[in-house]
Design brief:
The protein has 205 residues and is α+β, with helices and mostly antiparallel strands. It has seven helices and eight strands; from the N terminus they run αβββββαααβααββα. Strands 1, 2, 3, 4 and 5 form a five-stranded antiparallel β-sheet that branches. A three-stranded antiparallel β-sheet has the order 6-8-7. GO terms for molecular function: DNA binding.
Length: 205
């Protein structure tokens, strides 16, 4: 993500610290977006429940990520389902105030436009990777991105919905990584990354 300390210092002074507990919702579905959030820690999943009963996870937002930034430039007609995966500490911004700041400061506007462009590219790459790389490599990248201090504990169901693969396939690859000594399952925590170097090598295959 583009992170310019000069620009973010201008933006962050308008923010108010908030916390959201695990399993809570930051946005209420079917309500207008009046707030924008910058995550300092924790993670949030954004998803859609389809009419056929299946679920698609559109994004997993973690530290240094924004929520609601699209509404700075367009009116989102509906709010997607969202849930806090790990306790969130964030900065909350009034949307109108932040939108006015974008109108008055071209550098701030460019910062958000660049962030949105990077997010779009990341989603495009993810779709391309799903067609061209085995799950083992994609999962290694995913674990490295979402681990927190060497601990990884995203539910397998969320991974399968995010990567559009079966739960059984995710379970098989996770088990394989444990057998290779890359991950170690620890009750109550999730998975400890036992061999960071091997995981990084797997990602780079």
């Amino acid at each position: 993500m583009i992170f310019d300390n000069d620009i973010t210092s201008i933006i962050f002074k308008y923010g108010t610290k908030r916390t959201f507990a695990k399993d809570s919702n930051i946005y209420k579905v079917n309500s207008g977006i009046t707030r924008c959030y910058f995550l300092l820690s924790g993670s949030v999943k954004i998803y859609i429940d389809h009419k056929n009963g299946r679920r698609s996870i559109l994004d997993l937002v973690g530290s240094n990520g924004w929520l609601g930034e699209l509404s700075l430039f367009c009116n989102e007609s509906d709010i997607k389902e969202n849930k806090v995966l790990h306790d969130v500490e964030c900065l909350e911004f009034d949307m109108d105030e932040l939108r006015k700041l974008c109108e008055e400061n071209a550098k701030v506007s460019f910062y958000f436009a660049s962030y949105i462009a990077e997010k779009l590219l990341a989603r495009s790459y993810r779709m391309s990777e799903s067609l061209n790389y085995p799950l083992e490599i994609r999962l290694a990248s995913f674990i490295l991105l979402h681990q927190q201090k060497g601990v990884y504990n995203i539910p397998h169901t969320d991974i399968s919905e995010y990567m559009n693969v079966s739960y059984r396939h995710v379970l098989y690859v996770i088990k394989k990584l444990c057998e290779q000594g890359i991950l170690t399952k620890e009750k109550g925590k999730g998975y400890i990354i036992s061999d960071m170097e091997k995981l990084e090598q797997l990602q780079d295959k």
